[in-house]
Amino acid sequence: MAQMVSFTTWIAVLLLLYAAWTDFRTWKIPNAAVLALVTLYALRAAALTLGAADIGAALFSSTGIGGDVGAGLLLFMLGVVLWAFRLFGAGDAKLFLPIGLFVGWHGMLPFAIFLFVLGVAALLLLRLPVPLPLAHLAFFMRIEEIRASRKVPYGVVMVFAALLALALPVSRS
C-alpha cells in the first residue's frame, strides 16, 4: 500500500506541474487536471485506509483523511470567496481543492507561508525589466504579456507553494 501512496503522490506532482504550466501559458487550469488530481487523492485515500492498522484514526484524525478533506474544503471555500470578489480565476479556486487534499491539515501552515512568500516574490519579479539579450525568448515574451495584461497566473505560485509544502519532512502519525 505504501507503494500506491508514493505512486499517486508522484503522479499528482506531475499533474500539478502540468496545471501550473498551462496556467502560465493560457491563464487557464484544465478541469481534467483538477478531476484527475481529486481521483488520484481518492485512490491514495483508499490505499491509506486499506493499509491502516486503525481505520478510525486513518479516516477521522487531523493527520488522516479527515484532515486532508478538511484542508481541501477550506482552501476551496477560500478560493470561491476570492473568485467571487474577482481576485482569483475560477481555475485557481478549483485547484485549491486538490492542493488542500494532498497538502493536508498538517501542511496548511507551511503551504500558507510558502504561498505568501512566493506570491510576493512573483509580484516583485514581474516588476523587474527583462534583460535585453533574453527578451526574444518565448518564456520572457510570455512574462512581458503577463506584465502588460496585469493578470497574474496564480496557479503557478499555488503549485510551487504546494510542492514545497509536500517536500517538507512532516510526519503523518
Task: Write a structural description.
By secondary structure, the chain is mainly alpha-helical. The chain has one domain (2-167). It has helices at residues 2-26, 31-50, 55-60, 65-84, 90-103, 108-125, 138-149, 154-167.
Beta-strand residue percentage = under 5%
Secondary-structure element string: HHHHHHHH
Shape, principal axes of CA atoms: elongated
Number of domains: 1
**Model regions low in confidence, pLDDT < 50 over at least 5 residues:** none
Helix share, percent: over 70%
> Using DSSP, what is the number of strands?
0
Distinct helical segment count: 8
Radius of gyration: 17 Å
N-to-C CA distance: 16 Å
Overall pLDDT: 90
Characterize the biggest β-sheet.
none
Helix/strand class:
mainly alpha
Question: Which tags fit this structure?
Answer:
0% strand, 173 residues
What's the arrangement of secondary structure elements?
Layout: H1 2-26, H2 31-50, H3 55-60, H4 65-84, H5 90-103, H6 108-125, H7 138-149, H8 154-167
Helix pairs in contact: 1-2, 1-8, 2-5, 4-5, 5-8, 6-8
